[in-house]
Structure formats: structure tokens, C-alpha cells
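Figure 2 data, in text form.
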Amino acid sequence: MDLYDVRMRTKILMHAAFGFLLLNVLVFCMVFRRPDKRWKKDTYDCAIVCGYYAEEDGSPSPVMKSRVEKGVYLLREGKAACLLLSGGAVANSHVEAEVMKKYALELGAAQDVLYTEAQSVSTYHNMMYSKEVMDKHGLKDCIVVTSRWHLRKADHYARKFHLNYVMCEADNPAKQTWLCRALLYMKTWWNMYSNLFRGYW
């Protein structure tokens, strides 16, 4: 095989790889659309706070803290009438919803405006079980609170379970680096895309 043939084959492979990548990006963007962050009203019945793992000692992790802090802020500002804290024991034995509830109480949230959902082991379940809690308590619409890198995934499942919602971005933890956020984006988006082929979407 001469040098010309090697170059031509390399060029064909590069074009094929680029085409495959472009096709997959288009599929991803069609299935997982941009998050809906357009507020349709001033106050929502509740704010669903998506869970994230607690530390091994049972304290809230920085990401969990940032999400709960945003939820409590929405309560104080009158944007949400109550909080629905969603998350089971996933990364360790600590139930995320209970850890989040304890932290929300420490931040000054009232006990009677806090609901918990402790069955979820994924974003899919966050939305599915939160919808059940909302229906049980007559909550018609919600603000979905989560991290920026998680918005697109949570938005997708909020649509899947027919929630009347708006997405709300929690602040980044103070010590979280841009590299850490980039890795979280890649991990989350890869998980979303792989779910397509597992039929779990």
C-alpha cells in the first residue's frame, strides 16, 4: 500500500468519524432539548429539589447544599409555596431527601412546607416519584431545582412525566473548579445518551 492509499483511507475514516459524531450530536439535541427556563407565573405550588449524594458522615455535600439553598431562597422570595426534596440512598446509606430536609430546616425553612420523596435512585425516578407526591397533595405546578450541568437531563424527564414546570439553576459550589464542572457535564450527558440504547429514557 503506497502513501497515497494510506492518506485516502485516513481521510475517509476521518470523514466517517466526523459524520458519525455529528449524527449522534443531532440525535442528542433532538431528544434532549434545551431546558425550559421561561417562567410562566410568579409563584409555583412547589419546588422540586433534585437529590445529590450526601457525604459519608451524613452531612450534605457542596452540590446538595447549593440545590437546597436555591430551594429555600425560592421559598423566602415567595416563588414556591413548598419544597419537595427528592432522593433516596444512592451513593451511600444516607437518604438524600432526609439530609436535604435537615439542611433546609437549618436554613430556616418551616417544617410544614417540606415534603420528601425517598425512593429515587436516578433523575428519572426524581421526576416520576415527585409527580406522585404532587398528585397526592394537589400540587399542580413546580420549579425544578438542580445544578446547571444537570438541567437538560432533569428537563427531559420532567417532560416525560408531564409536569407543569420551569427549570431553575442552582449556584455552583464555591470551591468547584471549571474542570470539575466540565467532567460533570460529560458524565451526565454520556449517561443520558447511553440511556437511549438501554430503553431507559
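Caption note: The chain has a mean pLDDT of 87.
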